[in-house]
Design goal:
alpha/beta; Cytochrome-c3 Hydrogenase, Chain A, domain 2; 5-stranded parallel sheet; two-stranded antiparallel sheet; 9 helices; elongated; binds iron/sulfur cluster
Length: 323
Protein backbone atom coordinates (compact mmCIF):
# COMPACT_ATOMS: atom_id res chain seq x y z
CA UNK A 1 0.00 0.00 0.00
CA UNK A 2 1.09 3.61 -0.63
CA UNK A 3 -0.40 6.26 1.62
CA UNK A 4 -1.60 9.40 -0.16
CA UNK A 5 -2.68 12.77 1.22
CA UNK A 6 -4.28 15.35 -1.09
CA UNK A 7 -4.58 18.97 0.08
CA UNK A 8 -5.88 22.10 -1.60
CA UNK A 9 -4.13 25.43 -1.15
CA UNK A 10 -5.40 28.39 -3.23
CA UNK A 11 -7.56 26.16 -5.38
CA UNK A 12 -10.89 26.12 -7.20
CA UNK A 13 -11.20 22.30 -6.88
CA UNK A 14 -10.98 21.99 -10.67
CA UNK A 15 -8.30 19.33 -10.49
CA UNK A 16 -10.31 17.34 -7.95
CA UNK A 17 -13.32 17.42 -10.27
CA UNK A 18 -11.01 16.41 -13.11
CA UNK A 19 -9.52 13.50 -11.14
CA UNK A 20 -12.99 12.11 -10.46
CA UNK A 21 -13.50 11.70 -14.23
CA UNK A 22 -10.36 9.57 -14.66
CA UNK A 23 -10.88 6.47 -16.77
CA UNK A 24 -7.51 4.81 -17.26
CA UNK A 25 -7.17 4.15 -14.38
CA UNK A 26 -10.18 5.38 -12.43
CA UNK A 27 -10.00 6.63 -8.85
CA UNK A 28 -11.60 3.36 -7.74
CA UNK A 29 -8.92 1.42 -9.66
CA UNK A 30 -6.26 3.39 -7.79
CA UNK A 31 -7.78 2.40 -4.46
CA UNK A 32 -8.66 -1.21 -5.22
CA UNK A 33 -6.05 -2.38 -7.74
CA UNK A 34 -3.02 -0.14 -7.36
CA UNK A 35 -2.64 -0.04 -3.60
CA UNK A 36 -3.38 3.61 -2.89
CA UNK A 37 -4.47 4.23 0.71
CA UNK A 38 -6.18 7.62 0.63
CA UNK A 39 -5.46 9.15 4.03
CA UNK A 40 -7.53 12.26 3.47
CA UNK A 41 -8.85 14.50 0.72
CA UNK A 42 -10.76 17.77 1.33
CA UNK A 43 -13.71 16.69 -0.83
CA UNK A 44 -13.63 12.93 -0.23
CA UNK A 45 -12.42 12.57 3.35
CA UNK A 46 -15.23 12.23 5.93
CA UNK A 47 -13.18 13.80 8.74
CA UNK A 48 -13.61 17.43 9.72
CA UNK A 49 -12.04 19.93 12.12
CA UNK A 50 -9.94 18.45 14.91
CA UNK A 51 -10.04 15.01 13.32
CA UNK A 52 -8.22 16.43 10.29
CA UNK A 53 -5.71 18.17 12.53
CA UNK A 54 -5.03 14.84 14.23
CA UNK A 55 -4.46 13.12 10.88
CA UNK A 56 -2.03 15.83 9.78
CA UNK A 57 -0.22 15.79 13.13
CA UNK A 58 0.31 12.02 12.79
CA UNK A 59 1.86 12.55 9.36
CA UNK A 60 4.05 15.49 10.32
CA UNK A 61 5.40 13.60 13.34
CA UNK A 62 5.91 10.51 11.13
CA UNK A 63 3.77 8.37 13.43
CA UNK A 64 2.11 7.50 10.13
CA UNK A 65 4.26 7.39 6.99
CA UNK A 66 3.36 9.68 4.11
CA UNK A 67 4.31 8.11 0.78
CA UNK A 68 2.65 10.56 -1.63
CA UNK A 69 1.69 14.15 -0.91
CA UNK A 70 -0.43 15.75 -3.63
CA UNK A 71 -1.03 19.49 -3.64
CA UNK A 72 -3.69 21.21 -5.70
CA UNK A 73 -3.77 25.01 -5.79
CA UNK A 74 -1.36 27.88 -5.60
CA UNK A 75 0.83 28.44 -2.53
CA UNK A 76 -0.38 31.70 -0.97
CA UNK A 77 2.42 33.34 0.97
CA UNK A 78 0.81 36.75 1.66
CA UNK A 79 0.47 38.98 3.48
CA UNK A 80 4.14 39.81 4.04
CA UNK A 81 5.26 36.19 3.90
CA UNK A 82 2.96 35.09 6.75
CA UNK A 83 0.75 32.83 4.62
CA UNK A 84 -2.24 33.95 6.68
CA UNK A 85 -4.36 34.69 3.62
CA UNK A 86 -4.88 30.92 3.40
CA UNK A 87 -5.57 29.37 6.81
CA UNK A 88 -6.21 25.65 7.10
CA UNK A 89 -6.69 23.45 10.16
CA UNK A 90 -5.69 26.24 12.49
CA UNK A 91 -2.51 27.38 10.75
CA UNK A 92 -1.33 29.03 7.55
CA UNK A 93 -1.43 26.42 4.81
CA UNK A 94 2.20 27.24 4.04
CA UNK A 95 3.22 25.76 7.41
CA UNK A 96 1.43 22.50 6.62
CA UNK A 97 3.05 22.45 3.18
CA UNK A 98 6.52 22.96 4.66
CA UNK A 99 6.13 20.19 7.22
CA UNK A 100 4.35 17.70 4.97
CA UNK A 101 6.84 18.09 2.12
CA UNK A 102 9.60 17.43 4.67
CA UNK A 103 8.19 14.01 5.53
CA UNK A 104 6.71 12.87 2.19
CA UNK A 105 8.54 10.33 0.06
CA UNK A 106 7.11 11.84 -3.13
CA UNK A 107 5.44 15.21 -3.76
CA UNK A 108 3.16 15.76 -6.74
CA UNK A 109 1.87 19.16 -7.85
CA UNK A 110 -1.42 18.91 -9.72
CA UNK A 111 -2.72 21.70 -11.94
CA UNK A 112 -1.15 24.90 -13.12
CA UNK A 113 -1.52 26.67 -9.76
CA UNK A 114 0.37 24.11 -7.69
CA UNK A 115 3.02 23.58 -10.34
CA UNK A 116 3.77 27.08 -11.64
CA UNK A 117 1.60 29.39 -9.54
CA UNK A 118 -1.14 29.79 -12.13
CA UNK A 119 -3.66 32.59 -12.57
CA UNK A 120 -3.16 34.11 -9.08
CA UNK A 121 0.45 34.99 -9.98
CA UNK A 122 -0.60 37.45 -12.68
CA UNK A 123 0.79 40.85 -11.65
CA UNK A 124 0.22 42.48 -9.22
CA UNK A 125 -0.23 39.07 -7.50
CA UNK A 126 -1.83 40.56 -4.36
CA UNK A 127 -1.81 37.22 -2.50
CA UNK A 128 1.93 36.69 -3.19
CA UNK A 129 1.12 33.31 -4.70
CA UNK A 130 3.65 30.94 -6.21
CA UNK A 131 4.03 27.34 -7.34
CA UNK A 132 5.55 24.54 -5.29
CA UNK A 133 8.91 24.54 -7.07
CA UNK A 134 8.46 27.04 -9.89
CA UNK A 135 7.26 30.60 -10.05
CA UNK A 136 5.88 30.60 -13.57
CA UNK A 137 8.94 29.75 -15.72
CA UNK A 138 11.53 30.27 -13.00
CA UNK A 139 12.66 27.39 -10.86
CA UNK A 140 12.41 28.09 -7.14
CA UNK A 141 8.82 28.73 -6.14
CA UNK A 142 7.87 28.03 -2.53
CA UNK A 143 10.20 25.10 -1.83
CA UNK A 144 13.27 26.36 -3.67
CA UNK A 145 15.18 25.00 -6.62
CA UNK A 146 17.29 22.49 -4.69
CA UNK A 147 14.43 20.91 -2.76
CA UNK A 148 14.02 17.15 -3.12
CA UNK A 149 11.70 14.74 -1.37
CA UNK A 150 12.77 11.99 0.99
CA UNK A 151 13.09 9.76 -2.06
CA UNK A 152 15.46 12.29 -3.67
CA UNK A 153 12.97 13.51 -6.29
CA UNK A 154 11.91 17.08 -7.12
CA UNK A 155 8.22 17.94 -7.16
CA UNK A 156 6.61 15.96 -9.97
CA UNK A 157 4.53 18.49 -11.88
CA UNK A 158 1.27 17.69 -13.66
CA UNK A 159 0.21 21.09 -15.02
CA UNK A 160 -3.04 22.00 -16.76
CA UNK A 161 -6.06 24.11 -15.91
CA UNK A 162 -7.23 21.60 -14.95
CA UNK A 163 -4.84 18.72 -15.53
CA UNK A 164 -6.33 15.93 -17.64
CA UNK A 165 -7.91 13.28 -15.37
CA UNK A 166 -5.82 10.44 -16.77
CA UNK A 167 -2.57 12.42 -16.48
CA UNK A 168 -3.25 12.60 -12.74
CA UNK A 169 -4.39 9.03 -12.26
CA UNK A 170 -1.59 7.57 -14.39
CA UNK A 171 1.12 9.45 -12.55
CA UNK A 172 -0.39 8.51 -9.17
CA UNK A 173 -0.55 4.90 -10.35
CA UNK A 174 3.12 4.98 -11.38
CA UNK A 175 4.39 6.46 -8.14
CA UNK A 176 2.11 4.31 -5.97
CA UNK A 177 3.49 1.16 -7.59
CA UNK A 178 7.10 2.11 -6.99
CA UNK A 179 7.95 3.47 -10.43
CA UNK A 180 8.52 7.13 -9.53
CA UNK A 181 12.20 6.78 -10.39
CA UNK A 182 11.29 5.64 -13.90
CA UNK A 183 9.45 8.86 -14.69
CA UNK A 184 11.59 10.99 -16.99
CA UNK A 185 10.92 14.64 -16.20
CA UNK A 186 11.47 17.62 -18.48
CA UNK A 187 13.01 20.96 -17.50
CA UNK A 188 9.75 21.98 -15.80
CA UNK A 189 9.51 18.64 -13.95
CA UNK A 190 6.65 17.43 -16.17
CA UNK A 191 6.59 13.71 -17.04
CA UNK A 192 8.02 13.54 -20.57
CA UNK A 193 5.62 10.80 -21.62
CA UNK A 194 2.73 13.22 -21.33
CA UNK A 195 4.37 16.56 -22.14
CA UNK A 196 6.78 16.07 -25.04
CA UNK A 197 4.38 16.39 -27.97
CA UNK A 198 2.20 19.44 -28.53
CA UNK A 199 -1.54 20.05 -28.29
CA UNK A 200 -1.09 20.52 -32.04
CA UNK A 201 0.03 16.88 -32.38
CA UNK A 202 -3.08 15.00 -33.40
CA UNK A 203 -5.36 18.02 -33.78
CA UNK A 204 -8.00 17.43 -36.44
CA UNK A 205 -7.38 20.93 -37.80
CA UNK A 206 -3.81 20.24 -38.80
CA UNK A 207 -4.52 20.14 -42.54
CA UNK A 208 -6.01 23.63 -42.28
CA UNK A 209 -3.01 24.79 -40.27
CA UNK A 210 -0.70 23.56 -43.03
CA UNK A 211 -2.55 25.56 -45.69
CA UNK A 212 -2.89 28.62 -43.41
CA UNK A 213 -6.66 28.50 -43.54
CA UNK A 214 -8.26 30.17 -40.56
CA UNK A 215 -11.56 29.76 -38.83
CA UNK A 216 -13.15 32.95 -37.63
CA UNK A 217 -15.67 31.51 -35.21
CA UNK A 218 -15.65 29.40 -32.08
CA UNK A 219 -17.60 26.23 -31.72
CA UNK A 220 -18.26 22.84 -33.13
CA UNK A 221 -20.02 24.27 -36.14
CA UNK A 222 -16.69 25.64 -37.27
CA UNK A 223 -14.91 22.41 -38.12
CA UNK A 224 -13.14 24.01 -41.05
CA UNK A 225 -10.08 26.08 -40.47
CA UNK A 226 -7.41 26.41 -37.83
CA UNK A 227 -7.66 28.50 -34.66
CA UNK A 228 -4.03 29.67 -34.76
CA UNK A 229 -4.23 32.59 -37.16
CA UNK A 230 -6.98 34.71 -35.60
CA UNK A 231 -8.25 33.11 -32.40
CA UNK A 232 -4.98 32.75 -30.52
CA UNK A 233 -4.60 28.95 -30.44
CA UNK A 234 -1.38 28.04 -28.63
CA UNK A 235 -1.44 24.40 -29.72
CA UNK A 236 1.80 24.52 -31.73
CA UNK A 237 3.81 25.79 -28.75
CA UNK A 238 2.09 24.00 -25.87
CA UNK A 239 3.42 20.70 -24.62
CA UNK A 240 0.42 18.52 -23.83
CA UNK A 241 -1.16 15.27 -24.95
CA UNK A 242 -4.66 16.78 -25.22
CA UNK A 243 -5.16 15.52 -28.77
CA UNK A 244 -3.61 12.10 -28.10
CA UNK A 245 -5.29 11.27 -24.79
CA UNK A 246 -8.67 12.78 -25.54
CA UNK A 247 -10.86 14.43 -22.94
CA UNK A 248 -13.82 12.20 -22.02
CA UNK A 249 -12.23 9.81 -24.51
CA UNK A 250 -13.74 11.75 -27.40
CA UNK A 251 -12.74 15.38 -27.71
CA UNK A 252 -10.40 18.25 -26.92
CA UNK A 253 -10.60 22.02 -26.88
CA UNK A 254 -9.41 22.41 -30.44
CA UNK A 255 -11.65 19.60 -31.73
CA UNK A 256 -14.58 21.42 -30.17
CA UNK A 257 -13.60 24.71 -31.81
CA UNK A 258 -11.92 26.37 -28.86
CA UNK A 259 -8.32 27.57 -29.02
CA UNK A 260 -5.73 25.95 -26.79
CA UNK A 261 -4.82 28.48 -24.09
CA UNK A 262 -1.44 26.94 -23.31
CA UNK A 263 -2.42 25.88 -19.82
CA UNK A 264 0.35 23.30 -19.42
CA UNK A 265 3.11 25.85 -19.97
CA UNK A 266 4.72 27.81 -17.14
CA UNK A 267 3.88 31.18 -18.70
CA UNK A 268 0.14 30.46 -18.46
CA UNK A 269 -1.87 32.67 -18.57
CA UNK A 270 0.01 34.04 -21.55
CA UNK A 271 0.60 37.78 -21.84
CA UNK A 272 -0.76 38.18 -18.28
CA UNK A 273 -4.30 38.37 -19.68
CA UNK A 274 -3.66 41.86 -21.05
CA UNK A 275 -6.63 43.27 -23.01
CA UNK A 276 -6.57 42.10 -26.62
CA UNK A 277 -4.51 38.98 -25.90
CA UNK A 278 -7.20 36.47 -24.92
CA UNK A 279 -8.82 34.45 -27.72
CA UNK A 280 -6.95 36.66 -30.17
CA UNK A 281 -3.76 36.11 -32.10
CA UNK A 282 -1.39 38.90 -31.11
CA UNK A 283 0.43 40.03 -34.25
CA UNK A 284 3.55 41.95 -35.10
CA UNK A 285 3.06 44.63 -37.77
CA UNK A 286 -0.53 43.41 -37.99
CA UNK A 287 0.52 40.30 -39.92
CA UNK A 288 2.96 37.90 -38.26
CA UNK A 289 1.78 36.08 -35.13
CA UNK A 290 3.90 37.25 -32.16
CA UNK A 291 4.14 33.68 -30.86
CA UNK A 292 5.21 31.30 -33.58
CA UNK A 293 5.15 27.50 -33.48
CA UNK A 294 8.01 26.20 -31.33
CA UNK A 295 11.18 26.02 -33.42
CA UNK A 296 9.97 28.35 -36.22
CA UNK A 297 11.68 31.63 -37.04
CA UNK A 298 9.72 34.56 -38.41
CA UNK A 299 11.41 34.81 -41.82
CA UNK A 300 10.99 31.15 -42.67
CA UNK A 301 7.49 31.25 -41.25
CA UNK A 302 6.46 34.17 -43.48
CA UNK A 303 7.87 32.53 -46.61
CA UNK A 304 6.19 29.20 -45.82
CA UNK A 305 2.90 30.92 -44.97
CA UNK A 306 2.82 32.82 -48.24
CA UNK A 307 3.55 29.68 -50.27
CA UNK A 308 0.98 27.65 -48.35
CA UNK A 309 -1.76 30.20 -48.88
CA UNK A 310 -1.09 30.33 -52.62
CA UNK A 311 -1.06 26.55 -52.97
CA UNK A 312 -4.07 25.91 -50.71
CA UNK A 313 -6.49 23.50 -52.44
CA UNK A 314 -10.18 24.29 -52.60
CA UNK A 315 -11.08 21.63 -50.00
CA UNK A 316 -9.04 23.45 -47.41
CA UNK A 317 -11.51 26.33 -47.66
CA UNK A 318 -14.59 24.13 -47.27
CA UNK A 319 -16.24 22.07 -44.58
CA UNK A 320 -15.40 18.54 -45.66
CA UNK A 321 -16.73 16.84 -42.54
CA UNK A 322 -20.09 15.27 -43.37
CA UNK A 323 -20.55 13.28 -40.17
S1 LIG B 1 -6.41 24.58 -34.01
FE1 LIG B 1 -4.52 24.89 -32.79
S2 LIG B 1 -3.80 22.83 -32.32
FE2 LIG B 1 -5.27 22.64 -33.98
S3 LIG B 1 -4.07 22.69 -35.87
FE3 LIG B 1 -4.69 24.79 -35.44
S4 LIG B 1 -2.98 25.65 -34.24
FE4 LIG B 1 -2.76 23.42 -34.20
S1 LIG C 1 -5.97 22.10 -25.14
FE1 LIG C 1 -4.44 23.56 -24.34
S2 LIG C 1 -5.59 24.86 -22.90
FE2 LIG C 1 -6.85 23.01 -23.25
S3 LIG C 1 -6.25 21.59 -21.64
FE3 LIG C 1 -4.93 21.12 -23.40
S4 LIG C 1 -3.07 22.33 -23.07
FE4 LIG C 1 -4.65 23.17 -21.72
Amino acid sequence: MATLLWLQAGACSGNTISLLQAEEPTVVDLLTDFGVELIWHPSLGPELGEAVQAILADLVSERKPLDIFVLEGTVITGPAGSGRMDMFAGRPMTEWITELTNVASIVVGVGDCATFGGLPTVPPNPSASTGLQFHRGEIGGYLGKDWVSKLGLPVINIPGCPAHPDWISQVVMAVATGRAGDLALDEYHRPSTLFTTFTHSGCTRNSFFEYKQSTLEFGQGTRTGCLFYELGCKGPMTHSSCNRILWNRQSSKTRAGHPCLGCTEPNFPADDLMPGTVFKTVKVSGVIPKDLPTGADSLTYMAAAAAARISAPQWSREDMFVV
